[in-house]
Here is the input.
Amino acid sequence: MKMDPRKIEELKKKLTSQQYNICFLAGTEPPFSGKYTHNKKKGIYHCVVCEEPLFSSNDKFDSKTGWPSFDKVVNSDKVELKDDTSLGMHRLEVLCKNCEAHLGHVFDDGPTETRKRFCINSLALNFKEAKS
Ligand SMILES: [Zn+2]
Here is the structure.
């Protein structure tokens, strides 16, 4: 499911320049700069652009890389993976399927049974704490 491109254009206007740089110019925040890197609260991480729920605190782990890391997506239909050969490397880019925002990359060296490490920019996420 994709959003109406006009709606996406509207949402882009609400982003800060840093968020825009990550989400639509495929930028990367400096390691350890993101506000969610060490966030241990329970809740759901939403797409900062369109608010789709993408990652759960249950799947978050400390990868020591300086970016929030998850071993899976809340629902694999929520993201799109795309080959990225920039910087002379082959990586898999992770995009929000709904609004096509760049979120980060996924690697196959995760420490859990999924073997996945979704390395996601804090700036691409909006965390909503679970009500207990
Ligand atoms: Zn989105």
Summary: The pocket of zinc ion is lined by residues 47, 49-50, 52, 96, 98-99, 101 (CB under 6 Å). The longest helix spans residues 17-25. Residues 61 and 69 are 6 Å apart (CA to CA).
